[in-house]
Design brief:
Chain A is mostly beta strands. Chain A is built from two helices and twelve strands. In chain A, a hairpin with an 8-residue loop joins β4 and β5. Chain A is globular and about 50 Å long. Helices cover about 55% and strands about 0% of the residues of chain B. The chains are: A mainly beta, B mainly alpha.
Chain lengths: ~260, ~130
C-alpha cells in the first residue's frame, strides 16, 4: 500500500523475442497514489513497440487496493480491483491469466489493436513479513465485461534486503539498499478449463536497488518453464516516490485561492 | 413501549461507543501491555541512533516534519509521550500504524530498521 498523500511514478517494462515473432518492448507508466491508509489508487498508461512493426498506445488501467484489516497479522490481505481498457496489442504483461502464452506476443500490431479488451480484474493479495523476509501471494480472477468466462492466474514471491539494519551514513551502494528475491507466476485457465493444462508459467529472480535519493531500480530476468511460455523475458522498472504530493497540491490551490 | 425500548437500546449503544472512543487516547497508549515489554536491542547505541535519523528522514519526516516537529495532521514526535514511552509500545505503533489516523504500517521495514528509528525517536529533544 502507498503511504497516504504520496505519489509514486513507475515505469514498468518488459522486453523479449518470441520464437515466431519480433523483439518487442512493452511499457506501463504507473501513477500510484495513497488516498487513505486503507486505500491506494493507481492509473496505468500502456504502450508497446515491436521491431519491424510499429509503436502504439495500447490502453489504460485503473486499479484500487483496499487494506482489509486494521492491524498487522501473520498474513495481511489486500483486495485489489482493476478496470482495464486495453487492446489486443498490449504487451505490458502485468499479469498472466488463463492460457496467455507466447502466441499472444507474435501477432501484428495492426491486427491486435482492433481487438478491444474491457476487463474487470480482482485479486486477493496476501502479504507477510517475517524476520526481514517479505512473502506475497496473489490469486487473480479476471472477467471481460462483455463475454468470455472468468480467467484465473496466480503470482507468488519472496524477497529480502541484503542487510536488515541500516548503516549510519547516507550511501548508494550499500547492502541495505539492495533487495533480492524470486517470483513465480502463471495462468490457471478459466472457470471451464481450470487447471495447468496449456498454461504458461514463469520463474523470475528479482534484484531491486534503492538509491539514497529514493529512486528505485528493479531488474528481473524471467524464464518460461512450460511449453506455452515465452522462453525468456527481461523485466525492468524505475520508480520514484513524491512524498506528500497531495499536501503540495492542496497548498498550491489554497495559495492561489488566497491571492484572489 | 417498543419506542421506549428502542430509545434505551439507542442510548446504551451511544454510551458504549462514546466510552470506546474515549478510551482510545494516543496511539502509544493503545499498545497492549505485552507489546510494551519488548526491549530495544539497539538502546543507547550511537550508530543505531545515526542510522535511525537517516531512516527517519526517508520514511517519516515527510509527514512528521524534520526532527519530528510535527506537520499538518501528523503530530510532533519530540514530545514527552514518545520520549517516555516504552520502546516496545513504539515498536507496536510502527508495526500496526493506525488506519483511522492516517498513520501507515511500517511492517515492510525490517525489524532492525524499525528499532533504529525508535532509538533515534527517543533521543529527540522534548518540546518545552
Amino acid at each position: 500500500m502507498e503511504e497516504p498523500g504520496n505519489l509514486e511514478i513507475t515505469t514498468k517494462n518488459v522486453t523479449g523475442k518470441p520464437s515466431d515473432g519480433n523483439r518487442f518492448l512493452g511499457s506501463a507508466l504507473e501513477f500510484e497514489y495513497g488516498v487513505k491508509g486503507w486505500w491506494t489508487t493507481e492509473v496505468y498508461l500502456d504502450g508497446q513497440t515491436t521491431a519491424r512493426d510499429s509503436t502504439l498506445f495500447t490502453g489504460y488501467r485503473w486499479e484500487n487496493r483496499f487494506r482489509v484489516l486494521p492491524r498487522e497479522h501473520w498474513i495481511n490481505p489486500v483486495l485489489y480491483v482493476e478496470f482495464e481498457n486495453i487492446n489486443g496489442a498490449d504487451r505490458s504483461l502485468l499479469e498472466v491469466v488463463d492460457n496467455d502464452g507466447e502466441g499472444d506476443l507474435t501477432g501484428l500490431n495492426a491486427e491486435g489493436r482492433t481487438e478491444k479488451k474491457r476487463e474487470i480484474e480482482a485479486k486477493l493479495i496476501l502479504g507477510s513479513y517475517f524476520k526481514g523476509w517479505t512473502f506475497a501471494e496473489n490469486f487473480i480472477a479476471e472477467k471481460n465485461v462483455r463475454h468470455a468466462p472468468f480467467e484465473f492466474g496466480y503470482a507468488v514471491g519472496v524477497s529480502r534486503p541484503l542487510a536488515l539494519a541500516a548503516r549510519p551514513d547516507r550511501c548508494n551502494v550499500c547492502r541495505e539498499n539492495f533487495q533480492a528475491g524470486v517470483e513465480m507466476y502463471g495462468g490457471l485457465g478459466t472457470n471451464k478449463t481450470f487447471g495447468l493444462q496449456e498454461t504458461s508459467h514463469y520463474v523470475a529472480p528479482t534484484l531491486g536497488w534503492t538509491v539514497a535519493n529514493g529512486a528505485r531500480f528493479t531488474v528481473s530476468p524471467t524464464f518460461g518453464i512450460t511449453e506455452n511460455s515465452a522462453r525468456f523475458l527481461l523485466r525492468f522498472a524505475v520508480s520514484y516516490e513524491l512524498d506528500q504530493f497531495g499536501r503540495a497540491v492542496r497548498h498550491l490551490f489554497r495559495n492561489n485561492g488566497g491571492g484572489q | 413501549m417498543n419506542g421506549l425500548r428502542l430509545l434505551v437500546v439507542g442510548v446504551l449503544v451511544w454510551l458504549v461507543a462514546t466510552a470506546a472512543w474515549a478510551r482510545v487516547g494516543t496511539l502509544v497508549q493503545q499498545a497492549p501491555p505485552r507489546a510494551s515489554t519488548l526491549p530495544n536491542p539497539f538502546q543507547g547505541q550511537q550508530r543505531a541512533q545515526q542510522a535511525g535519523a537517516k531512516l527517519f528522514a526517508h520514511e517519516c519526516s515527510a509527514c512528521h516534519g524534520p526532527n519530528g516537529r510535527g506537520m499538518g495532521k501528523a503530530p510532533p514526535l519530540n514530545q514527552a509521550d514518545v520520549h517516555d514511552a516504552s520502546p516496545g509500545a513504539l515498536f507496536w505503533v510502527l508495526r500496526n500504524g493506525s488506519l483511522k489516523r492516517g498513520m501507515p504500517s511500517f511492517a515492510h521495514l525490517p525489524e532492525a530498521q524499525r528499532w533504529q528509528i525508535i532509538t533515534y525517536l527517543q533521543t529527540l529533544n522534548r518540546r518545552p
